[in-house]
Structure formats: structure tokens, C-alpha cells
UniProtKB/TrEMBL annotation:
Organism: Streptomyces echinoruber
Domain of life: Bacteria
Residue span of region Disordered: 56-106
Compositionally biased tracts (Basic and acidic residues): 56-65, 91-106
Pfam families in the cross-refs: DUF2795
Biased composition (Low complexity): 70-90
Protein name: DUF2795 domain-containing protein
Amino acid sequence: MTHGTSARDVVEAVKDVDFPAGKDRLVEAARKAGASAEVVAAVRGIPPEQYANREEVARSVRVDPDSGLGTSASQRARQARAGGRPGQSQHLREVPKTPVEEELER
């Protein structure tokens, strides 16, 4: 885990990437964006896969679980109840939508 690096830092570092994107392109984008060495190291630590969007990148990078992506306490509780893939940390599970977000999608 990279201490001092948040999921928001990682998302900000890859904001200009056209998705889908692979790990090498994400690392290069973080460097070009002037991200800190810790953020670049965090991006370098993700699995070598194709990522569809920044949210997938944020879920794959190992950062402080408390850094979050702006999830509320109720969303974190729903993440814990919903489960996830075997061995997946709670903070990496899919974030449930709030009732307002659900209503807006209708």
C-alpha cells in the first residue's frame, strides 16, 4: 500500500487518458501529468490489464482505504454487506448508488 496517496490523487493523475487504457499508458500519463513519485508508484503497482475508466483504475490501485472516492458512511456499509470477489478488500468493492443517483437514472 502506498501511504500518503489517495484514490483521488490517482484519478487526478490519469484524468487526461482516453479509455480503455492499459497499465503502461496510465503510468506514462501519470508521469506526464507531473504526479508525485508515490502516485506514479501506486499506478505502477496495478495489475497489467485494460481499464475501461478512471473508477476501475482507482479500485485497482493500492492506496489507503480511508482515502476513498468520496463514499459516504452508508455507502461503505452497503459495500460491506454486498460482498465482493473472494479476497477483495471492502474499499475496493463496487460502490452502491445513493437513492438520488438511482432516481436520476430512471
